[in-house]
Amino acid sequence: MVRAPCCEKVGLKKGKWTAEEDEILIKYIQVNGEGSWRSLPKNAGLLRCGKSCRLRWINYLRTDLRRGNISVEEDSLIVELHASFGNRWSLIASHLPGRTDNEIKNYWNSHLSRKIYTAVITTTATTTTTTTTTATTLPRIMDIPPKRRNGRTSRWAMKKNKIYALKTKPNNHQESPKQSYQSVVTHNKNHEAVPLAPTPSLETENLTMVMDFSEEIGDGSSKGSSQQEDENGGGTMVNEQYCIVDEDAIINNMLCINGEKENSGHENSEQYQEVINGGWGLNFNEIMDTCFMELGEEIENNNNNNNNNNEQTCTNRESGELLCTFSSKVTGLDDSNNNSKWDWGSVIELNGKDDVAESWEKKENLLTWLWEDDDWGKDYNEFGDIDLMLAWLSS
DNA sequence: AAGGCTTCCAACCGCGTACTG
DNA sequence: GCAGTACGCGGTTGGAAGCCT
Fold first, then answer.
1. Strand C nucleotides within 7 Å of a protein CB
2. Distance A5 CA to C3 C1' (A)
3. What is the pLDDT of residues A74-126, one digit of tens each?
4. What b-and-e string marks burial along A366-379, b requiring 16 or more CB atoms within 10 Å of the CB?
């Protein structure tokens, strides 16, 4: 069934708004206030769809808009918030007073996505013989100007000498970007539930595909047995379901379908993961293994490490070249629990070896999933440090 | 100078959801 | 509970315009 149009479209104007139309809309809203978008065009005498009026007002005519170039601080904030929230532009915009979701979306698509891509390439290209590295020594994404290809300059730069539509009015009631971000960080560090609505984003769609795949073959499929002994060699568990490790995607590696905790000693443990606490599970080590293996590298446990730092090395599978080491010492964090602490900065370098774009996409998917899963925190604690991983993913 | 390529961004579109009767 | 309506959001598009050859 075709959805009825939001308003009668016959005879309505489309395309660019004229200054006269803007003036009519502004005056009408100044008198009558926002809202009632459907009836607004008719009452105001505009030959526009109500939706179009709303969009024009919100994205361009509102008096509290902050026009002009995105500042360095805003740039950084957008990157951080996008790492946390994904493509939820309105949510990101709510942390940037005076900026609209459309503006941020456009800015991301035209500036930041390319900038981040460039940053990964640059990081990889400058890495020769990699030794232990800390994340702080890596170039920050926002510090690297994108290599601009030919094309037009910013439309704002062209416009900024025009008086048309330049309205700036500070909004004293909203948090500053810095304050807003601080609240997000604090919130997340406490591992409290972040009040996020479902994200109908591309990332989520990809995730759904993975989940469906797992469900399809996870229970008694040809790839795995539906029966398995429990840890104590006891009876066969029922309703067992396994996480499918898709060689083509890191994110697949950490998805476990609903089920009970079970014996991880499956005969093909590289393909099936332990399911944790009846929820979505996350096997950190397998995520990383898959990540590196895909890129033609492998990780070896260095059991002869005298410093007992749970150090691991990563070598090129073909050449045997030592690419990186991972050590709890690198992080400087307390390792009294004998947990492995990863040097996420080095992980970034490794990720770019073969297919940077694909690797980066996976990283983003991974991060999005982490934020959107309610239970990831408690599960992940079994394998490493959440904050380090997040710092790496959102760097 | 001109044409092609590339970029930018305002605006459109469809969908999900909240609201209302 | 249901259907219709309105709104908000995110993905996509179209065209203007800059840059390069």
1. 5-12, 16-20
2. 16
3. 888 888 888 778 888 888 888 888 888 888 888 888 777 666 555 554 455 44
4. bbbbbbbbeebbeb
How far apart are the C-alpha atoms of A174 and A345, rounded to whole Å? 35
Nucleotide B6's nearest residue (CA vs C1') is A151
Nucleotide showing the shortest C1' distance to residue A85 CA: C10
Classified by CATH at the fold level, domain A1-63 comes out as Arc Repressor Mutant, subunit A (1.10.10)
CATH architecture label of A72-126: Orthogonal Bundle (1.10)
Shortest-distance nucleotide from A152 CA to C1': C18
Q: What are phi and psi of A139, to 5 degrees?
A: -65, 135
Token pair 């930041």: residue: A112
Closest nucleotide to A91: CA versus each C1': C9
Strand B positions within 7 A of protein Cβ atoms: 4-17
Q: Which of A68, A89, A66, A73 is nearest to A142 (CA)?
A: A73
The spacing between the Cα labelled CA in A184 and the C1' in C16, in angstroms, equals: 39
User: A339 near A239, Cβ under 8 Å?
Assistant: no
Q: Which residues touch strand B (CB under 7 A)?
A: A 3, 6, 13-17, 48-49, 51-52, 55-56, 59-60, 102-103, 105-107, 109-111, 114, 148-156, 198, 200
Torsion of CA A65, A67, A69, A73, to 10 degrees: -30
In degrees, rounded to 5, the angle at the alpha carbon of residue A155 between the alpha carbons of residues A75 and A395 is 15
Length of chain A: 395
With a CB cutoff of 8 Å and minimum separation 6, the contacts of A117 are: A356, A357, A360
Q: What is the pLDDT at residue A40?
A: 85
Answer with the residue of higher pLDDT: A364 or A200: A364
Distance A147 CA to C20 C1' (A): 15
List of residues 6+ apart from A376 with CB closer than 8 A: A280, A282, A369, A370
Residue A105's nearest nucleotide, by CA–C1', is C10
Q: DSSP letters of A170-210?
A: --TTSPPHHHHHHHHHHHHHTTPPP------SHHHHHHHHH
Considering chain A, tell me which residue range(s) the CATH 1.10.10.60 domain(s) occupy: 1-63, 72-126
Phi and psi at A54, nearest 5°, equal: -60, -45
To which residue do tokens 């109908």 refer? A200
